[in-house]
Amino acid sequence: MEIRAYKDKQEVAREFSEFLVERIASHKNYNVALSGGSTPKIVFDYLAQHYADIPWGNVHFYWGDERCVSPTDADSNYKMTLDHLLSKISIPKENIHRVLGENDPEGEAKRYGQLLVEKLKTANGIPQFDLVILGMGSDGHTASIFPHEIELWDSEKNCVVAIHPDSGQRRVSLTGRVINNAKEVAFLVTGADKKEKVTSILAKDGASKNYPASLVDPKSGKLYWFMDEAAKGA
Ligand code: 6PG
Question: What is the mean predicted confidence (pLDDT) over 50-58?
């Protein structure tokens, strides 16, 4: 595990963008699972502004989780990515593999899980991303696996339907088997509201096992935490 801590969100966005761009430029067919949330949004803005001309055709984008809403809804992770990145770069349509949030959630979780089997190479009998990008909520959730449904992490399926604890919104999420099978996993975590859970997870204290983010432990050993000082704490 590698902790990369920076002064503020903007610096996290810049450093993570460089990390990602290096990988995209040097791999044909680089498969990435994206996350929703506020930190990726500023990463996407940074990429659109500074790296619009890299060989985006090398990359295939998937999502680690999606809200079960239409792709034009303000809550859609796909829409956020479209607005902040995809509409500003040149990338073939066939390289974008969105979760169809407008469809029946259970059917979509099954379809997307199967799509991963068809599109990605497998390792350990499980589809393998080159990179999974994750956020962490202030409750310790990651992707859309929340503490009240932490058992979904260990599902035998590639994708499950999860429920947001407050809004009841349904979401399609990757599970631990796919996330921990990735070649590399990167957390993007910023803001002081994350500090308590970050401290607990990094210390592996007693409470940490209740937080889905503590279960991120790729078999490859390649886990990066990109954080700002506010999230990391002293
Ligand atoms: C989502 C996410 C989610 C997010 C965290 C952190 O779709 O809601 O993928 O897991 O990454 O909630 O979000 P922030 O970056 O906004 O703190």
Answer: 97
Distance between CA atoms of 26 and 13, rounded to whole angstroms? 20
For ligand 1, the distance from its centroid to the CA atom of residue 117, given in whole angstroms, is 25
What are the sequence ranges of the domains in the chain? 1-102, 193-218
Among 8, 16, 43, 65, which is best to mutate for testing ligand 1, by the most ligand atoms less than 8 A from CB? Answer: 65
- Ligand 1 binding pocket, CB closer than 6 Å: 35-39, 65, 77, 135-137, 141-143
**Bridging pattern class, strands 131-134 and 30-34:** parallel
Residue 89 confidence (pLDDT): 98
Q: How far is CA 36 from CA 25, 39, 79, 91, in A?
A: 23, 8, 10, 20
Residue nearest to ligand 1 atom 2, measured at CA = 36
CATH match for 1-102 among 2.60.40.10, 2.30.40.10, 3.40.50.1360, 3.30.2390.10: 3.40.50.1360
pLDDT digits (tens, 9 = 90+) for 32-48: 999 999 999 999 999 99
pLDDT tens readout for residues 179-210 = 999 999 999 999 999 999 999 999 999 999 99
The tokens of 173 are what?
């999420």
